[in-house]
Amino acid sequence: MPREIVIIECTEARKEGKSPSRYMTTRNFRKQGSEKVEKMKYNPSLKRRTLHREIKK
Asked: How far is it, in rounded angstroms, from Cα 19 to Cα 1?
């Protein structure tokens, strides 16, 4: 099954004036009506887990 590589970025860091963390992950390419990927990941500049959302390439 084909997979698509996507980049996810922290949603809270810019609000606090810090640098956002970014991660690369994959998702199902052929899934109908696919929504943006959201995952809880660690942000080293904020020193806690935050919500990361998919950004445009």
From this structure: 35
- Which tokens belong to 29? 């390419």
Q: What is the pLDDT of residues 1-57, one digit of tens each?
A: 688 899 999 999 999 999 999 999 999 887 776 788 999 999 999 999 999 999 986
- Give the span between the Cα atoms of 42 and 10, in whole angstroms: 9
The answer to whether 5 touches 28, Cβ cutoff 8 Å, is no
Write out the two tokens for 10.
């922290």
- Strand-pairing partners, residue 3, are 28
Q: The pTM is what? A: 0.83
Residue 29, number of CB atoms within 10 A of its CB: 12
Farthest-apart Cα atoms in the chain, separation: 40
